[in-house]
Amino acid sequence: MAEALRPGPEAGIRSDDGAWASGGASDPAAYKDVLGRFCTGLTVVTSLHDDEPVGFTCQAFSALSLDPPEVLLSVQRTSTTWPRIRRHGRFGVGVLATGQDELARALARSGPDKFRGVDWAPSATGLPRPEGLLAWIECALVREVDAGDHLLAIAAVGALEVGADDAPLLYFRGDFLAAGGAR
Ligand SMILES: Cc1cc2nc3c(=O)[nH]c(=O)nc-3n(C[C@H](O)[C@H](O)[C@H](O)COP(=O)(O)O)c2cc1C
Which of 21, 32, 87, 169 could form a disulfide bond with 14, CB atoms 3.0-4.6 angstroms apart? Predict the structure, then answer.
């Protein structure tokens, strides 16, 4: 039988009417432990700054609207790359395939030369597109919404490309995970 859900280390959250409660949200480690059990794919978000490639690894990406076609990113306020992407206004979202852990690590580093050792080529519109992606989504920033220590970036979708039918790279409980198999 499946293990029963158990309370977090601390009962931290309660709705105003007391109808529900959950543990641990005031403890960042507990928050990460619990929310980290939501498995996601991974993307890299890339753009140009002074004609040089810039980008960052992004887990918090999702489809948002089909009509009009829009996507959503949640971006750390401390990101040094995001202000550069914002200035350019256009960016690409690359969906990572199994085996692209190194690319995910490279673009998660803060600082210059993130693209050193990364295989990439300009997309049709000139954005830096890493090789070996599952999919490529070109976006134009539409608006930003304040969200605590993050901001939500909403972007209109332009060109779309599909890559190999490989399995995706997954992120689960703070670690990279290979998916079961390609379709
Ligand atoms: C697996 C993984 C997922 C990440 N997901 C996000 C994310 O969803 N949003 C975000 O702003 N940063 C995310 N980051 C952090 C950025 O990739 C990057 O480290 C951060 O933006 C600092 O780099 P910068 O100063 O160049 O922006 C993630 C990092 C890793 C390793």
Answer: 21
Kindly state if the Cβ of 22 falls inside 6 Å of ligand 1.
no
- Distance linking the first and last C-alpha atoms of the chain: 30
pTM to 2 decimal places: 0.90
Q: What share of the chain is helix, strand, coil (3-state, %, to 5)?
A: 15, 45, 40
Q: What CATH number is associated with residue 71?
A: 2.30.110.10
Q: Is the CB of 40 under 6 A from ligand 1?
A: no
In a domain, 19, yes or no: no
Asked if pLDDT for residue 12 goes beyond 80, the answer is no
Exposure class string for 116-140: b at 16+ Cβ within 10 A, else e: eebebeebeeebbbbeebbbbbbbe
DSSP state at residue 128: E
5-9, 126-130, 143-147: least confident range: 5-9
DSSP 117: T
The CA-based angle 90-99-113, given to 5 degrees, is 50
**Domain annotation covers residue 143:** yes
* Atom of ligand 1 at shortest range from CA of 61: 8
